[in-house]
Automatic annotation (TrEMBL):
PROSITE patterns: G_OBG, GTP1_OBG, OBG, OCT. The gene is obg. The keyword Nucleotide-binding applies. One of its GO terms (biological process) is ribosome biogenesis. This is GTPase Obg. The lineage of its organism: Bacteria, Bacillati, Bacillota, Clostridia, Eubacteriales.
Amino acid sequence: MFVDRVEISIKAGNGGNGTVAFRREKYVPNGGPAGGDGGKGGDVVFQVNSNLRTLIDFRYKRKHAAQNGEDGGNSNRSGKAGDDLIIGVPPGTIVKDKETGKIIADLTETGEEIIAAKGGKGGRGNQHFATPTRQAPRFAEGGNKGDELKVVLELKLLADIGLLGYPNVGKSTFLSVVSKAKPKIADYPFTTLVPNLGVVSWKDGNSFVIADIPGLIEGANEGAGLGHQFLRHVERTKMLIHILDISGMSGRDPLDDFEKINQELKMHNEKLAARKQVVALNKIDAVMEPESLEEIKSSLEEKGYEVYLISAATRQGIDTLLDRVGNLLDEIGEVEPIFDLDELEGEKLYEFKSEKGYNVYRDNEAYVVEGNFLEKLIASVNFDDYDSISYFQKILKERGVFEELEKLGIEEGDTVRLLDIEFDYIK
């Protein structure tokens, strides 16, 4: 199956910082702490949008970031939470973590969504750190950073349109001129050995996917020739374009070919045969018997089919056909599935594993502590305030940092480095 693939970077919003503030009311001389909490950072959410059919827009915008939370204010005012970033994707999109290759989500249903990057939690203001013995805390928490990662979006393209027709009627040539697909083209039967798919970028930013199905022959529904294998791809489409060669050079009867292939469709699956079908009479630039052209067109129109005269080789009539096809896809909308999609191999959803959030190791004579939580913690500390330093040590102990250092053999007086800050270890 053809896969449209793109890599993008996503960044959830950072949480706002908590604030250090005190009440300053006229008749409250010893006002207590009143620093507000920081707002939560916005999440990055992937949401299925049935109006989208390809990932082509992501090729022009590779970085996506949600809004940061606001810092807390005075008088216990909390900062505003950052807005979530909703990223629309077409049905059938698989979201993977680029670094691990794990599947974050398999998005198939309209409106389905997944939070791929969580916004950082807002830091607490100093109002939360008051105790009977610490009535005027001069420190507050910094906000957490939002998740940041590179993801791979893969769309197993379920073609909007299937191209039908006997071998060598010009389906591959048609696909090559309306999209950037480069199918193998030659003048012999069964040129196409695998389904070729192309993304057609059309007017007003619309795009859709066309599948060139390998040539069908009579008896395809029973497995003759290549037909049965590839009919399974045709039945995933919303509508069909039936291409007929009316040049007369092949010596075949276009109307007879049309009836035989539609009979194969009906015998294979009646729902598939009922799909909207338009007919493209191809190679009008090389018609050997012009008088037969109108007869064929009239005969098909009498049966209720829309008929378009085209030449894939010269692009004659192509724009008119694509205009109509684009409008029809909008009119058709969602269709009832005929054939269940192959089940996705591997995990349906990847749960991000929780980690302790830091790493402790020895670097020559110093002991180094690294971790995302340290940046937030250090931003919260007022190193000129005893209560703030006590809080700092309490958090390190609760997170097990001291225990890890002792496992490495740290002694009193040894140097510990946290980010760009160094201090002596005291038991």
